[in-house]
Write a structure and sequence with these properties.
By secondary structure, the chain is mainly β. It has 1 helix and 31 strands. The two termini are 33 Å apart.
Length: 391
């Protein structure tokens, strides 16, 4: 059965049944994988771990963009002359380096990159969010964005939401066709109203928040800067969750008395569309987003970790024993691929291309690019890893 994610066809799901995953996914060694060692471009291990930060992205042409901070100055350091550069590299679809940029920054952490729906590079560095204008080869400051700044992006990559301080006003940036800014500065009437400046997820039209009032859970959505017209959705995530679009959501329900967690996609009216049962002791989701989605939400890549050895009764924490990136095809109702990744790393991030066909993973300066549809990867991206190195 084919699932069409176009809004005007949402009603076709009325009689859809939930199918639990029963097929075996492709393992990492069965897919075309190419690698680039970024140490040859100046990458160095960060001082502490960074997990699932926005320093890697795949654009609509299959190009992979990565970023990392490098030490460039050892003498007098000022705000105008910080000690670090944010290095940004873009590799073309066939794996060749086609763009190399540097942007000064004074922090090793809290730097990140985003791509617009047109493939424009947006960098967070040196307390600002900046857009690279490739035609003029210049950077344009879009907004101030300090260490406490929170940046969210819609799955379509057309919209950014920025909050510079806790419960501060929300700034919405529409990226296409040219950047347009909208400030949500309505005065707060109560503590509940502070939700409007702290959405947990966004789309191009709505902001979303899920929380609890005592034992009762709720999920709200509202048009940007129009919290008074919010609506309550019949969604009770019960754990980590993410938004695929205004019609479909991915849940990672937490079941404390079960040793198997599910990845579940539900519609806006609460009906389950897809469900995949993880392996024993496998968990997805976290404080930082563990989901990357194709533009239409038809494919998702999820960071999944295996935790063992814990005891809730004795308050003993579990320890991670394995980690993988699982790719699910929601329309085909199956786990499409499972890519094992290392537990020992300083830096780790991943992204899924807008068409869902290309997955990029960055681990400690080693960039891996996986073509999920089995297409050949250009030789410019380096040699393929031997099968034993992918495990």
């Amino acid at each position: 059965m084919y699932l069409d994610f176009k809004p005007h066809k949402v009603k076709v799901f009325v009689f859809v049944l939930v199918l639990t995953l029963q097929v075996c996914p492709c393992r990492g060694d069965a897919l075309p994988i190419a690698t680039v060692d970024l140490r040859g471009y100046g990458w160095e291990p960060p001082a502490r771990k960074q997990v699932v930060l926005r320093f890697i992205a795949v654009d609509q042409k299959g190009r992979v963009v990565v970023s990392y901070a490098t030490q460039v100055r050892t003498h007098l350091v000022t705000r105008d002359k910080p000690s670090l550069d944010l290095r940004i590299l873009r590799f073309s679809e066939d794996g060749k380096l086609d763009l190399s940029l540097s942007l000064p920054t004074h922090l090793e952490y809290w730097n990140s990159i985003f791509l617009s729906d047109a493939g424009q590079i947006i960098a967070r560095a040196n307390d600002s969010l900046q857009l690279y204008q490739e035609d003029s080869k210049t950077w344009k400051v879009l907004a101030e964005c300090g260490p406490q700044c929170s940046v969210q992006q819609s799955v379509t990559r057309r919209t950014l939401a920025i909050r510079n301080e806790y419960h501060g006003p929300l700034l919405v940036i529409r990226l296409s066709p040219v950047p347009r800014l909208q400030q949500c500065d309505k005065a707060l009437k109560s503590s509940e109203d502070s939700i409007q400046h702290s959405p947990q997820a966004i789309t191009d039209d709505f902001a979303y928040y899920s929380g609890s009032d005592g034992l009762e859970r709720f999920t709200y959505r509202w048009p940007f800067c129009d919290y008074d017209n919010r609506e309550e959705l019949p969604l009770r995530p019960g754990g980590y969750w993410d938004v695929l679009n205004d019609h479909f959501f991915v849940f990672y329900p937490y079941a404390p008395h079960e040793d198997r967690q599910t990845v579940k996609v539900v519609s806006a009216d609460g009906r389950a569309i897809f469900q995949s049962v993880n392996g024993k002791c496998e968990y997805a989701g976290g404080i930082m987003s563990s989901t990357r989605s194709s533009e239409r939400g038809s494919r998702i890549a999820v960071n999944i970790v295996t935790l063992r050895g814990g005891n809730r009764a004795l308050d003993i924490s579990s320890r991670p024993t394995a980690r993988r990136i699982a790719v699910y095809d929601i329309e085909l109702r199956k786990e499409l691929a499972s890519i094992p990744i290392s537990l020992k790393y300083h830096e780790f991030g991943f992204d899924l291309g807008p068409d869902g066909g290309r997955l990029a993973i960055l681990e400690d300066g080693i960039l891996k690019v996986i073509d999920l549809d089995g297409k050949r990867i250009g030789s410019g991206m380096g040699s393929k890893l031997p099968a034993e190195e992918r495990k």
